[in-house]
């Protein structure tokens, strides 16, 4: 009865007979994973951008709106591009500047942008975000 039990112990139901083949497959798999990682690293990542519509409000109807727009557009940051603008009537002869910009989310935040615009305190009373869209 003892020799029959030894035969059953030698059978490996879940292993493979060829360990060299498994090692070779593992080497090939590792090489392919390494090549994939290198290829992925070379590929430029997707840059997250946002389109922002700002309402820049003046102090009163005597504020020079052309000068205010010039001041706002004078703000230059890496990842900031100014777009179209227009003057929108608010009431009592007062107009606000509505200006479009596109920003790279990693480089320019809305807080920084608002702070920079409100530094022109002779012209700008406040800044509001009218629209914010991810691109």
From TrEMBL:
<comment type="similarity">
    <text>Belongs to the EF-1-beta/EF-1-delta family.</text>
</comment>
<feature type="domain" description="Elongation factor 1 beta central acidic region eukaryote">
    <location>
        <begin position="13"/>
        <end position="40"/>
    </location>
</feature>
<feature type="compositionally biased region" description="Acidic residues">
    <location>
        <begin position="1"/>
        <end position="23"/>
    </location>
</feature>
<dbReference type="InterPro" id="IPR036219">
    <property type="entry name" value="eEF-1beta-like_sf"/>
</dbReference>
<dbReference type="Pfam" id="PF00736">
    <property type="entry name" value="EF1_GNE"/>
</dbReference>
<dbReference type="InterPro" id="IPR049720">
    <property type="entry name" value="EF1B_bsu/dsu"/>
</dbReference>
<feature type="region of interest" description="Disordered">
    <location>
        <begin position="1"/>
        <end position="27"/>
    </location>
</feature>
<dbReference type="InterPro" id="IPR014717">
    <property type="entry name" value="Transl_elong_EF1B/ribsomal_bS6"/>
</dbReference>
<dbReference type="InterPro" id="IPR001326">
    <property type="entry name" value="Transl_elong_EF1B_B/D_CS"/>
</dbReference>
<dbReference type="GO" id="GO:0005853">
    <property type="term" value="C:eukaryotic translation elongation factor 1 complex"/>
</dbReference>
<dbReference type="GO" id="GO:0005829">
    <property type="term" value="C:cytosol"/>
</dbReference>
<keyword id="KW-0648">Protein biosynthesis</keyword>
<dbReference type="Pfam" id="PF10587">
    <property type="entry name" value="EF-1_beta_acid"/>
</dbReference>
<feature type="domain" description="Translation elongation factor EF1B beta/delta subunit guanine nucleotide exchange">
    <location>
        <begin position="49"/>
        <end position="135"/>
    </location>
</feature>
<dbReference type="GO" id="GO:0003746">
    <property type="term" value="F:translation elongation factor activity"/>
</dbReference>
<dbReference type="InterPro" id="IPR014038">
    <property type="entry name" value="EF1B_bsu/dsu_GNE"/>
</dbReference>
<dbReference type="InterPro" id="IPR018940">
    <property type="entry name" value="EF-1_beta_acid_region_euk"/>
</dbReference>
<keyword id="KW-0251">Elongation factor</keyword>
<protein>
    <recommendedName>
        <fullName>Elongation factor 1-delta</fullName>
    </recommendedName>
</protein>
<dbReference type="GO" id="GO:0005085">
    <property type="term" value="F:guanyl-nucleotide exchange factor activity"/>
</dbReference>
């Amino acid at each position: 009865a003892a020799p029959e039990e030894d035969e059953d112990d030698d059978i490996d139901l879940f292993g493979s007979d060829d360990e060299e083949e498994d090692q070779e497959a593992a080497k090939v798999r590792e090489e392919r994973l390494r090549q994939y990682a290198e290829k992925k690293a070379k590929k430029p990542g997707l840059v997250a951008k946002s389109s922002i519509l700002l309402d820049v409000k003046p102090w009163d109807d005597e504020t020079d709106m052309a000068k205010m727009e010039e001041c706002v557009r004078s703000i230059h940051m890496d990842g900031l591009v100014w777009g179209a603008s227009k003057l929108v009537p608010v009431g009592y002869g007062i107009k606000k500047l509505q200006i479009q910009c596109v920003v790279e989310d990693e480089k320019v935040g809305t807080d920084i942008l608002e702070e920079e615009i409100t530094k022109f305190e002779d012209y700008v009373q406040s800044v509001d975000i009218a629209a914010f869209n991810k691109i």
